[in-house]
LacI family DNA-binding transcriptional regulator
Amino acid sequence: MEPSGLPTLQDVSRVAGVSTATVSRCINDPSKVARKTREQIQKAIDELGYTPNFGGRVLASRRTNSVGVVIPTMDNAMFAGALQAFQEVLTDAGKTLLVASSGYDPAQEFRQIRALVANGADGLLLIGTDRPQDTRDFLARRRVPHVLTWCFEPDSTACIVGFDNRKAGRLIAEAALALGHRNVAIIGGISRNNDRAAGRMAGMRDALAAIGPPARITRVVETRYGLDQGGDAFDVVMQANSAPTAVLCGNDVLATGAILRARDRGIRVPQDVSITGIDDHNLARVVAPALTTVRVPQREMGRQAARVLLGLIAGDRTLRGCEVEVSLVRRQSLAGPPPGG
Amino acid sequence: MEPSGLPTLQDVSRVAGVSTATVSRCINDPSKVARKTREQIQKAIDELGYTPNFGGRVLASRRTNSVGVVIPTMDNAMFAGALQAFQEVLTDAGKTLLVASSGYDPAQEFRQIRALVANGADGLLLIGTDRPQDTRDFLARRRVPHVLTWCFEPDSTACIVGFDNRKAGRLIAEAALALGHRNVAIIGGISRNNDRAAGRMAGMRDALAAIGPPARITRVVETRYGLDQGGDAFDVVMQANSAPTAVLCGNDVLATGAILRARDRGIRVPQDVSITGIDDHNLARVVAPALTTVRVPQREMGRQAARVLLGLIAGDRTLRGCEVEVSLVRRQSLAGPPPGG
């Protein structure tokens, strides 16, 4: 017995009268152990109430062959395309992907990162660049190979495989401006602790301020990503004294919620008001009218991120990140402003 | 140095001239270590090229406080609602959720299960009941506390917190029959290695056979869950010599894909053909016409599954699973058959 009083593999081996190697094989690959021996070992395990020592196995193999990802939320398919592609490359390389979620809380993200590292993750994929100093110190001190994604900063010293959220915001706002919109509302994600949401809104503001005279921002609402939240925010921006002719949303979930609410209110999209998204999520092509949005090449980004992370894990310190390009997708939800709008 | 030649925590402690406890504290909670000491340790770490021994930490704490889930795919939001609720309960209990995905492949599921257990997961949530004997033997032999979900079998000896897929299939087929449909096509998920997809289709067949005279099944197509796949399958079932008046889909993603394709083809839903889903996914309320479907109470199921799994991990062997109830949600995609249909 260990000092903790818990039975060990050695105890099982002694009681069963077989080697520890046989016990280990029986636990991990029972088909390779003769039936009679298996039964002896099972009997010993049952008698002792033995529970295998998970940590011991990790220690024995040193490398667990897993890679961790911390995404902000499991609650919608926002990250699904990139994750699936990321996973496919890792699976081909014999690695297991473990996904944890932070609930958009930097302290919880740090806990998840520590848990993944403690559980033996060989490397991490993290969303966005903006995180507290103690998290960054931990990653540096523990020398955890990690790639950042869903963002891009050309001058960053971090290894980033992602896209420029600010550019995405600028693209969609420029598309609205080009059609003549000058009274614009913004429904964004909550920008606190979320550099992607903040970047998207900053890009929209850049574009709206860059023309002369600048377009008027009638209202800005920040809300959680969700259909109902998008709908509620739409009600708020449409209540303003001078209603916008276009509502630029920080992602497709919010934009889809806004379109559903417009339908409920008898507001026609795009005849009465235009609504746009960002991401080119499945919802964007399903909702009617279909969303004009900015496409994020999720699969390409996920694959690239996996390749770079595998390189870092293999010890290649020369690897740098790369930017994947976003592009405007024109569908039906954006048209010119209504006459007099 | 270890026999492997890798530097150890002890090496760092010797070179830095501090205790191993201080090195350990410096790595895990640097704010608690004086700056000068931190610098000494960092210098030693840099000189030695030390990488912390993750396995060692797991071993030291015995319990990693993580719980694993293996879902079939990360590629859409099918499991998102339940997972998010599952995670919320676990987070409150101080546990980290690690999600892996099997790609609907039983061998990959088994690899992911072993990886999660090797990485120290205290318990597992698995989707469905149908898995190879070696996977079940492994779970039994390693005494891994685990809960099955997304399915329900009252007589199973496993601990299941889920719903009856067969009942869900029956409910939606009965709704179509009640409106007078007698020529029905089925677009299901791939039933091989997927007891949920198989159960849903079996339930539809049960209902269609139970009336007198039985309804005619014009065509059955199995396909991967995806919008394009649903659309392609819709083309196939509508090509049949005698077209169906209702197309029952195995989930909302397939049904949404079918509705989009019907729109492209100029086929009116529900005037020319009715289309139904299962799950009550976000897509079901977003697509136009909105889907008549069967609601799976995902959040309730996720919360319950988490509570039961936490109980099993805590050693409560008396816990049994429970069934959450599915219910019909009537929207616009299902109406009576067209005249003469």
Summary: Residues 1-5, 53-62 of chain B have pLDDT under 50 and may be disordered. The longest helix of chain B spans residues 195-210. The first strand of chain B starts at residue 66 and ends at 71. Chain B touches chain A through 68 residues (CB under 8 Å).
